[in-house]
Amino acid sequence: MSHLLREHAPITQEGWNRLDSEARERVLPALAARKLVDFGGPHGWAHSATNLGRTDGVSDAPQGIEGNVRRVLPLVEARAPFAVARSELADADRGAEDVDLDELDTAAVRIATAENAAVFHGWSAAGITGIAEASTQDAIPLGEDCERYPRHVAMAVDALRAAGIEGPYGMALGPEAHTNVLETSQHGGYPLLEHLREILGGPLVWAPGVQGAVVLSVGGGHFLFESGQDLSIGYESHDAQSVQLYLEESFSFRVATPEAAVALTP
Q1: Which of 29, 71, 128, 164 could hold 52 in an S-S bridge, CB 3.0 to 4.6 Å?
Q2: Which tens digit of pLDDT belongs to each residue from 173-209?
Q3: Is 266 in a helix, a strand, or coil?
Q4: Is 117 within 8 Å of 209 (Cβ atoms)?
Q5: Is residue 75 within 8 Å of residue 251, measured between CB atoms?
Q6: 244: how many CB neighbours lie within 10 A of its CB?
Q7: Please, are residues 232 and 249 in contact by the beta-carbon 8 Å criterion?
Q8: Is the whole model's pTM more than 0.85, yes or no?
């Protein structure tokens, strides 16, 4: 039996297939961090910590013995609860296409946003230092003038090259900045989005949870995301009207190369 306890839910296999499909459809576009950093795993729910490859000395070891304790980074568990009406699940089993899964959609975006925020801005209570706060590069104000975005991104790329950080480079754009980019064409009608991609030489992604933007190397080895339990739907409880469910994951994140990213502040 899985810790997700799906076997106890009053949901048919067809119903679970529908829920899983809806969750994937909603959550995948919002998982910006995974498109830009190294992804390891998933290693399963029992995987509890990431090996950091370092030790701390033990001062009170037995006489004649040297002791060291290995350093690890615990995985954090993130859960976003939601509910589905049992009547909607029954309609889904009958073949209805317009099933009300709004709470699932909201939970999917919420947990993806939290993951992005942890990776890029940190989650101190969970022991996670984010890319923007770990960066040793000077932050660049993004500003509100979209016409100047290419200059700011080029400055960030030049700073990374000057630090010996190879490309290709990617960019996580917060929702407001991403909307501005999509709505802007430069002189001659050339889309700003394409111009930024040419400067970066790599992906530019919509990143809910990111404040401003972050330019970083996507060459590998700089930013390390480790998944224990990948995003999955679990069962909590039910009554006559609804089923209480949740989206859950466990993960750790660490920055191996602080100079490999530049924050573009709002």
Answers
A1: 71
A2: 999 999 988 887 654 556 888 899 999 999 999 999 9
A3: coil
A4: yes
A5: yes
A6: 15
A7: yes
A8: yes
